[in-house]
Amino acid sequence: MALCVELGDEISAEVNTRVRALEYLIQAKALPGVVETVPSFRSLLVYYEPEQVGFDALCAALGELAEQAGTSVLPPSRLVELPCCYEPEFGLDLVAAAERLRLSTDELVRLHAGAEYLVYFVGFTPGLPYMAGVPERIRLPRLETPRVKVPPGSAGLGGAQYCIYSVESPGGYWLLGRTPVRLYDPEAAEPTLLRPGDRVRMRPIDRAEYEAIAARVAARTYAPAIA
Amino acid sequence: MIHIVDPGPQTTVQDLGRPGQLRYGIPPSGPMDVRAFVIANRLVGNADGAAGLECTLMGPRFTVDNACAIAVTGAEAPVTVNGAAAEPWTTLALAPGDTVRVAATRVGLRIYVALSGGLDVPAALRSRATYLRGRLGGLEGRALKRDDALRLFPAPVPPPRRLAPSEMSAIEAEPEIRVVLGPEADRFTSDGIAAFLGGPYEMLPQSDRMGARLKGPRIAHARGHDIISDGIALGSIQVPGDGQPIVLLVDRQSTGGYTKIATVGSFDIGRIGQVKPGQRVRFRAVDVAEAHRLRAAWRTTLATAAGGPLAVAPAA
User: 40-59 in A: which are within 8 Å (CB) of B?
Assistant: First the structure.
């Protein structure tokens, strides 16, 4: 059984922070009967065991925790630095996006790599981070025709959202570059890299460094910088 | 060791799944029809969560190297051992070299094959369940292929048992699936909700373990079919702009952005998992209290089926 706690009806860092704070409080207090939680932009899906907690009692407990759920309760978040190659062979839409934004490609890369992104939640496909923090100057509506196949590692922009595709999948975001780091590796002990609440920065790399890191990723000897 | 001669159209290794990973975008997987899966394990003396096979539409043909026991449950399909007809929902003792064949289903969609000891494949995130889209778990994260060989954990061959006919799953022609309306039922017109509860809806062939795609009376939205993406529960029924429902299942995406009219009770997931393409279902709304009662009743029946679970889990 599951119930959905809605903490707002908008996509904002404030609402999402409350969602993650509520999840954190549930874990910290080991709320009886809760078996799994799934944060998203503005709500928390709570799976529960009705033989351990009644619906009304759970709603009351969640309501109480929701009132305390704010930034101050969350522990410090991780900062993950991901290398990203912005060559046009990886950033399939880099040139078109720069033209549309009336920026040089260098300027677009500088703005994209200069920002810090907040992982609102992970979902859709395994390990795919939904991130906010896209600078106003580089926001674009989604592609009119989504791609049928986006390569994993592709860094995509869609409006105020930023995501990195974790597996090959369809996608409608503008692809600016690609990271050789695997966000999802089914053979790893921890298959997904990013967690809700992580902060992410992109570090521009050239083609040669991309290849070097990709080889180390394949050999499982590479780990991105996490602070 | 078992050797796959012919896997059937989609046969995967499953156990009771990997809960707790949805917040990383990884679904639980596991059997669609938990009851049939668990009973198969009990009939071969396994713990409920031992890894076995889930087969869709048609079962596999395989040979065994060692003496072991199997049980075939779930959808109704002809079973033979060395060409001789064998009983489903029954412990079948096999000798080295025996060949088992499970043919196409006559009624129902998903067949379960449990093997004594359980399948010895590496666990991924503490589960052997296969998640095909994520290439995770099972045998290399994929469906079985011809010439695959799978090891069994060592286990004694259990005494033969046949499940009481009253405990065998009855697979219905047009099941009535119980749902709790919400969380976005208010995004539909009252005619839309009436259409949904009036039905019937036909199972489409593009359905899979991720979602059951249905076709029937159009469900009209009151205001838009998109929401801010949020979590999708087991059994959530999404209704995109075309007004046709999709029931999200064990391999579902963790989040989605279509309005959800209702949620199928976990106790009825196994029933919807047995509906063949072309077959029809109807939906009936129950309230949360009734859903809790139905779930408790389902669990009570399952707790004693086939004599209940093993008292002590085996060392494996």
Answer: 40-45, 47, 50-51, 55
